[in-house]
Amino acid sequence: MTAILFASFFLIVTFLPHVLGLSDIPYFQKMNVSQEEYTKTFNVYVKRMREKDYSSSYEKNYFLTFTHSGDSDVFIHSTRQLDFRMRIGSRAKVERATLRFLVSGGECSHLQFYQLRGAKKIHLETIRPHQELLPQWTSIEVIPDHNRINILIDAPKCRIFSPAVHVLLKRGPKRTPRAAHQRTDCSTNIYYSSAKKQRCCRHKMEVVFKELPGYEFIVQPYRFDAGYCKGGCPYRYNPANHHASLQSLIWRQKKGGAPKPCCAPSKLEQLEIIHIDEDDPNKLKMTTWSDMKVLECACF
């Protein structure tokens, strides 16, 4: 297993910079992006995402920042609670909420973060900062909420500056026309999902870059549905082109005359990403990654 992971990481390091047009893979451990740089880049990202909409009546992306109600400079002897009050609106769709802060302290060894939701205390993450990199801007993902986010921090001998919650959301009416990619989506079409021998369709595949070795330098999106194609391709079923239709016919008449058509992506979409600058860990960059999201599937 170790050999497989090493080989996979080697391929990423070798080919990913070329695919994204980078000089090298950014070293995410040294990331030290300020609130100003983070906010500026995300506002540009939101603007670009809005420009992709075809109608002003569609949902629009928004990027909001909320500061906590107490002091901006927090010295933690044992535990401390941070309270972020927000007025987002119940109709808004919160896609992501991120807590960011500057951590310092010569004896700061670890920080544990919990989110308080009613009577529940949910552990979010434990951070062990590298002393040689302090002070350092750090971030963790929190559970989205429309009204209030309460964070409990256990971080002895640590100092936290300027804690803020950044929220990425969508507002506005949803698209009423049926999206084109839903035509072959397994989850929205009972014909694809209920058949004993499932036919070629698009399945969901959630990707969290932070959890993939070699991809941790990607800041946004935190997670997205990349999708994949799977299922059978019976005779004359959803051919991708005229050749696929002909191949299906030959396969049916002469089993050895041609291979059975295979289920594969027929339409893909580019992905806008925010990532650490490979030349400066204090900066962020935006890059367009082509053919990263499967929209439709067909038989080839």
Automatic annotation (TrEMBL):
CDD domains xrefs: TGF_beta_maverick
Signal sequence, renumbered to the chain: 1-21
Location of the protein in the cell: Secreted
Keywords for this protein: Disulfide bond, Growth factor, Secreted, Signal
Alphabetized Gene3D superfamilies for the sequence: Cystine-knot cytokines (2.10.90.10)
GO CC aspect terms: extracellular space
Entry superkingdom: Eukaryota
Principal cellular location given in the protein's record: secreted
Family: Belongs to the TGF-beta family.
Protein name in UniProt: TGF-beta family profile domain-containing protein
Organism, scientific name: Nezara viridula
